[in-house]
Amino acid sequence: ACGGGQDSSANQSGGGSDQLTLGFSQVGAESGWRTANTKSVQEAAKEAGIDLKFSDAQQKQENQIKAIRSFIQQKVDAIAFSPVVESGWDTVLKEVKDAGIPVILTDRAVDSTDTSLYKTFIGSDFVVEGTKAGEWLVKEYEGKPDPVNIVELQGTTGSAPANDRKKGFGDVVAADPKFKIIASQTGDFTRAKGKEVMEAFLKANKDIDVLFAHNDDMGLGAIEAIEGAGLRPGTDIKIITIDGVKDGMQALADGKISFIAECSPLLGPQLMDLVKKAVKGEQIPTRVLTEETTFTQEQAKAALPGRKY
Amino acid sequence: MTSLTGRWPGLRRPQRKYIPVLATLSLLAVMYGVGAVRYEAFSDGQVILNVFVDNAFLLVVAAGMTFVILTGGIDLSVGSVVALTTMLSASLLQEQGWPPYAVLPFVLFVGALLGFAMGCIIHYFEIQPFIVTLAGMFLARGLCYTISTSSIPITDPFWTSMAQSKVRFGEYFVSPSVIVALVVVIVGAYVLSHTRLGRNTYAIGGNPASALLMGLPVARTQITVYAISGFCSALGGVLLSFYMLSGYGLHAVGMELDAIAAVVIGGTLLTGGSGYLVGTVLGVLVLGVIQTIITFDGTLSSWWTKIVIGALLFVFILLQRVIGARKAR
Amino acid sequence: MAEPAAILAMTGITKEFPGVKALSDVDFRLFPGEVHALMGENGAGKSTLIKALTGVYDIDGGEILLEGEAVRFTGPLQAQQAGVSTVYQEINLCPNLSVAENIFIGREPRRLGAIQWKKIHRRATELLRRLRLDIDASALLGTYSIAVQQMVAIARAIDISAKVLIFDEPTSSLDAKECEQLFRVMRQLKDEGIAILFVTHFLDQVYEVTDRVTVLRNGRLVGERLTAELAQIDLVAMMIGKELEVLEQLDEQPKSSPAALQDASPVVAASELGRDGAVAPFNLAIHRGEVVGLAGLLGSGRTEVARLLFGADRADHGQIRVDGTTVAVRNPRTAMAHGIAFCSENRRTEGLVEDLTVRENIILALQAERGWSRPIPRRRQEELVDKYIKALRITPANPDMVVRNLSGGNQQKVLLARWLITEPRLLILDEPTRGIDVGAKAEIQRLVVSLADGGMAVLFISAELEEVLRLSHKIAVLRDRHLVTEMPNDGVDVEHVMRIIASGAAV
Amino acid sequence: MTASLSGHMSALTRRRLFWPVTILIVLLLANLLFTPDFFKIEIRGGHLYGSLIDIVRFGAPLIMVALGMTLVIATRGIDLSVGSIVAICGALACLWISGQDDQNSVAGVLTAVGLALGLALVLGLWNGFLVAGVGMQPIIATLILMVAGRGLAQLITDGQIITINSTPYKLIGGGYWLTVPFSILLALGAVALAVALTRRTALGMLIESVGGNAEASRLAGIGSRRIIVMVYVFCAFCAGIAGLMISSNVSSADGNNAGLWIELDAILAVVIGGTSLAGGRFSIGGTVVGALLIQALSTTIYTVGVPPETTLLFKALVVTVVCLIQSPAFRAKVFQRRRRPSARAAAREKTKVEVAP
Ligand SMILES: Nc1ncnc2c1ncn2[C@@H]1O[C@H](COP(=O)(O)OP(=O)(O)OP(=O)(O)O)[C@@H](O)[C@H]1O
Ligand SMILES: Nc1ncnc2c1ncn2[C@@H]1O[C@H](COP(=O)(O)OP(=O)(O)OP(=O)(O)O)[C@@H](O)[C@H]1O
Ligand SMILES: O[C@@H]1[C@H](O)[C@H](O)CO[C@H]1O
Ligand SMILES: [Mg+2]
Ligand SMILES: [Mg+2]
Questions:
Q1: Would you put residue C169 in left (φ > 0), alpha (ψ -120 to 50) or beta?
Q2: Which residues contact D37 (CB under 8 A, 6 or more apart)?
Q3: Residue C57 C-alpha to ligand 1 middle, in angstroms?
Q4: ABC transporter domain: which residues (chain C) (predicted)?
Q5: ipTM of the prediction
Q6: pTM
Q7: CATH architecture of C1-83+162-245
């Protein structure tokens, strides 16, 4: 296991035919989504013949910064990371730049004004995901004048996907006064919390038409709560979620979820391409969007068999 | 035991009370050695300096925690107070347009004040520190979110210069934060060993009832240590905001456990009354070196990282005990 | 009647604890330049009166005048600042700090805010020398025995140059030599005009050093007398407040009757038992019905001998035989399984669980023997506990009272009761009469005799040589962690044993 | 006399529980303002249904964990690893079931439960060994498993959420038995067992003794080590059951999030219930009330609609109020009663004894 570090330092400047070393700092393993993301990166690296130095930051930005510093010391050929937070990367990214190592951001952007600090950003746009969810809803209720009562299950308070999805969704539905978000609580992105909070929503609010959950897992938990209350998920209460993990797609296909905006974790292959190009010094676009779509119940049935995660 | 050592005056063995610290030190050296043998770039002196650079804020927080633990208390609020400080600093600098020289004393004051308030509740209302500081933890974290739920970048020139300037020694460097942290440790160690406040801290940890009957100012001391811890957390928060150049409500989640672990690994007893700040420095280094080894390895998946951290902690504490026990005989 | 003004006058002091009226309307006064004994049985309220004075307790009623001014201290700190320095009954020092620091903490000499450690050590060493205490001032206090700790506490109190000095049973763990040192210093302080309040259970000491006596009983004032005008028997009568027959029994010494005990094989025999750094290998045999007394100075290793026999510490050498067969005494549990019981000297740290009730503390060892799954039936618990509360006169006689709230002497009795109900074959008593009033002490002594008469083997440790001699059939003398000699108690006198202790030679 | 004494005792314990119970009731009443039928319990689909039932049902895992924690704390210990044990046990059980051809087979589910709880016992043994055998400070000893255990749980699930579809397993945390949620029955059973184990045998007293003064207990012949090990094993076992409940409730195992931070809630519940972190006396009834209080607090936050960014402030407020009101020192200082002046007057007609001149 220790050989890798020495190899890479030996041939760091050589480039060319020799194996590339990529330092990758992952946020953590806080969700199934994240794990799928990690796997995708690891597998793609293997496939592309890239030596991957993987580091788990356990959800702490300071750990990511430490990891990046140690990548510099280990003289890797390229660094990629999914920033835990948008802010606060300038210092360490300057150090990376001074060391002449190209940086690729995955999954999440940084808010640096100095865009020369990284080569590109590949990943999804959480605001857009929320917007897509909201747009579907608006379309679904087009022409129906009755008020629509929405409850929202937010992700972990303060996390970027929670903030952005709430914003994207909220902005769309705010345009029409018939949409009312009558309750909004955090469900910590987990099934257990999703269920618990939904149970309370159901008791406190008699008339819920729509549930918007910031990820599939909370939605899946909520489905159980809705069924427990003797209601039919997807029918009595429409459910919109984000992610598109296997269990979510299954529920969508089963008609329990009404709509999913995809947030794909499978960035690995795209990332490896970009890494190779960046190391060679080729020109690459500064923003690469993950290939993402949305799923209706029909589309889910079709897509389900090929779903990997 | 005392008379035993007395019998062989020629044999200069270390005083028994320093054994935990020495055991930690030697194990740390061994750990570093293993790292250096396994990973080539590891032996670079800068690696060790980076451990300081990357943990300066933890060091300051743990130093404050040491005071509290020495009295037999505990402070769970430190991580949240760190986060609150980053958030306050960021919002005051960026959104309210305060100048840095006003922000700095203000956030430090807020930290100390929070600690002071918790200390008062602990002392006057006789509520267990664990619970009071747990409430403090909720409070400070909650205050972060009332400021903002998203992160606020800091672009203030003073902050950026603190973040990006380097204190160089030849080819090596540390950040200004490291200097701040070391000053805190030195001042803290001096206070503990050479002032009444420090000695009263130990006395209360040894036996609070006795301390009271001996006529020591228990109230004042107990409240002061929490204020110190609050102050150190705030200072740690400032250093963290230098390090991250942002304020965020999710910063430093779980840092209280790191700080407690560092203090305890450094040989301080959680029951109070025994331990040294040097030990805490070593404890922080142990955590830092474990982290560094894992990053250098670079092959561990997320869960193996956790398992290996746990295992290394275990081996370390176990060996520390074995060495300590053997030497003490 | 040319009395000087009292430096301290307490009038009508009343203090109630939930369920106990510890003090009711007690008056007490103290004059400069006198040593004033505060006497009373266990639980009479002596310690409470002291704590009421120094502000540890809020009083429910009464008035305190210090030098003519009404005071109500908020706590020991304030009392100390006003010139009232106290050694409380439970030694109140910090075991985790050095001896010197314990003496000076809170009033360390400083320069520019920095503690002057050198000065502290120098002054501490001087002070200890003045008390003829030969210990290392820089060592941790916790490494020393209670007696040493007690002397350190006294040193601290004395050095806080106070107007009023209070000692709550300082001598209970001191041996004769140390008491002598203490009294010497007390007399000296008295001559300097300091007023000293002195609590003790030793009548001899009262007559040796005090000028005046105040007696409490059941939280009430019985009376205040000049020591010189009070016959010893009257003093005891005031304390116990009852029939003289008790007192007569007290004078009548329990008989030791060394029978043909030595023939049978000993209940417990140690051969070459020892522990490095604690006590050198020794031989000791204790027979059925025999009381063996351990004599020696403090720190001579008596407690260590007891702990080895009980398995509280692990022996490095030698072996223990019970009824002639070698047994492995690895820990207290195994010792108990062989019928050995150990009533430790330090009741607070090694004896009682202060937050449990009297009942729970008494049945603890018996329950431990039976294991957790076989609880002693409630009815049986109550019978046993009632019996011993009566037998040892534990007050208040409330089995559900938390032991922490018992007076010192009554705590000691609870500990004793714990071991008596296990009906051991060998009972090791380490300072069982420390801090116990005259009446109770006599009872415990009688108890030891009757236990031995009933066939129990007893190892008896006490700092009071007379007591050891009065009770033991056989005396073993320890000196500097060596068991130097063992002799039958046939007409041995105190002098003789003292000489052995002093010279180390088996004369 | 005995009767009156025990009567006195229970009055004391009742007083100790008075404040937490009062606050619990106040909290529930507060909900009534926002949700008029908050107290309504009905039978819906053959199940008891209502907010109060929810509180106990969702509180059941916390009750379990806090129950074990109570005994650990009574020995002056602490167990930070319970959250990880929750995750590990849920993960192992779900992994096993997901590997079955017939996920609904009772035998398969029982094996899964057995395996998971068996592992919990081993983990408890490990904690107990570190504390009692090696002599580590409990907080650090259990921190090791807290950190490593999360990794272990994720190792078991391979970082994914394992979803299962098993009716018998669903019963544990999400099912009903005779209209009553099964998890409530389980928690009740565990509480009853713990009470019986500690109060019907001498275990409770021995635990309190070890926690009150470990050295004195050793010298009284108590096998403190064995008791400490036992307590950690019991705690892990309770956490294991909680893990089964949590994973069963959502029919899936989430190695990362299951039981996250539950140790803090559990410790909080124990302390609110009147057990001191300094060890010694413990109160299982108090712990149950404490756990319910914490769960009621969460439910209140959801129903009252406290915005997520202020929930922590709200929690801080309630915790502070609960602890302050419970503190005798606080009550004495804030609602200071007048000193009784009668004491002296009453004692005037004492039998004053002569004082020597
Ligand atoms: N904190 C307390 N709470 C309740 N009762 C107490 C408390 N302290 C003392 N008592 C009770 O007050 C009475 C007086 O106790 P005190 O300690 O003053 O006795 P004492 O005269 O010092 O006895 P001893 O010679 O045994 O030390 C006893 O009945 C004791 O049980
Ligand atoms: N004068 C002293 N100098 C140094 N150490 C002492 C002294 N007295 C006691 N000690 C310490 O106290 C410990 C306990 O000694 P031990 O209790 O066996 O003596 P003891 O004869 O029972 O005396 P005691 O009267 O205090 O019960 C010893 O290990 C020793 O380190
Ligand atoms: O768990 C969350 C979400 O599922 C999201 O879609 C991506 O970020 C992860 O942290
Ligand atoms: Mg007393
Ligand atoms: Mg002794």
A1: left
A2: none
A3: 12
A4: 8-243, 259-505
A5: 0.88
A6: 0.89
A7: 3-Layer(aba) Sandwich (3.40)
